[in-house]
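Sorry, explain these tokens?

***
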Amino acid sequence: MRMKTCSIILITMIMIGTGFYTAATTNKTHVEIIEISKNFPSPTIEYKNNRYIISLKETNNNLDGIPFFSETFEFPLGTKIKSIKCTYNPFVETVLPEKISTIRKPIPPVYNPYKPNEKYNTNKDTYTSIGCSAYNIKKHAGINREGKEALFLTIELYPIQYENNILRNTNYIHLKIEIEKPMHLMNFPDKYDLLIISYDDFTDILTPLVNHKNSIGVTTKIVSLSDIYSGTYFPIQGRDDAEKIKYFIKNAREEWGIKYVLLVGNYWRIPVRYSHLETDKGTKFEELSFVSDLYYADLYDSNGGFSSWDTDNDGVYGEWPYLMGMKDNVDMAPDVYIGRLACTSRYEVETMVDKIITYENTTYGSRWFHRIVTVGGDTFDKNWENGTDYDEGEVANEKAIEYMNGFTPIRIWASLGNLATENIVKEISKGCGFAYFVGHGNPRSWATHENGDYYNWT
């Protein structure tokens, strides 16, 4: 391979399946060339259970029944994409007798309650599952496995496209991406590990927790809301209290090197941010906004700037284009580890502090800690709108188990016939470091059900 744009210092090639990756770098301009070439066989089309099922070797992902290939690369935060060039062999069309049932239905025109004078029409005569491009690029900024800031670049190749009963496929896609790495890496000092942000009236009773954390080697700094709002440590930034707190966390990350953040106080003590995944009017009992403390952990966008969660500046955060074209560019990848003690009173804070200290002093190294209890079933019944005919909860459980190396998984699943309250209590009582429930619930209860049995919940 001959590169005319720069002298090649290092070239690496990794063979994967019937495709290959090439990376070329130069130490003069910090420019790197990524090339991905993939050969795809013809897709397999089966008619099963009254619907068409499409499968394709050399792909590793699926969207609405259409397979595609994806791969994620990691670079230093601040890396920029200079150019993208995609070439592919001509797409071959196959006409199907009927539509693929897993493809979502077209959406009618809707009313935007936040912008009543604007109309959005997302209705289409045809629905294209993936779009007309043969590729897509996604960028996210977050911490990697070593706790360092990184840019995660996900490349998706679409050898199959579907539109209006017509299936189009190509047997070859080649993608060439030129990136430029930053001259200087983002490095933080190592002053504190843990930042505790507390409601003012709770700060004094958190002293035992601060002392405990420092005693076990977790350097800890506690600040009150008044410290943040008055600019005691850093200049005040932000449009509202939640954004002021987020800017403070960002400054603490950059100036103190904090890795962990603990918020102490419930939603009326420590502000929360509501994300808006559904921006229609909703039904009588439908919840349209959702609390997400991920907002406080997602500090940087993919360019290294502040991740506001309100990129269209309309005061509505975390908008997702549900029913309409509105969308905020939310990075979603955390840059710090975040947690919250949702306490409402001093008594609750004292109780939680005592529990944390006791737990960390008495359970470290316990054998039972290396167990993860997972509970799941059919989260979305097939008869619901956009429901599916498989056990989503169990799929989510299994995905979490894949990440838990060194942990013994306990599966309490509807499909295994052991989904019962007494089994959940028994397994958790044995001890577990992690418990993962997937279903429906509220602060007082949780439940799921067997596939297709909407009327009997556990």
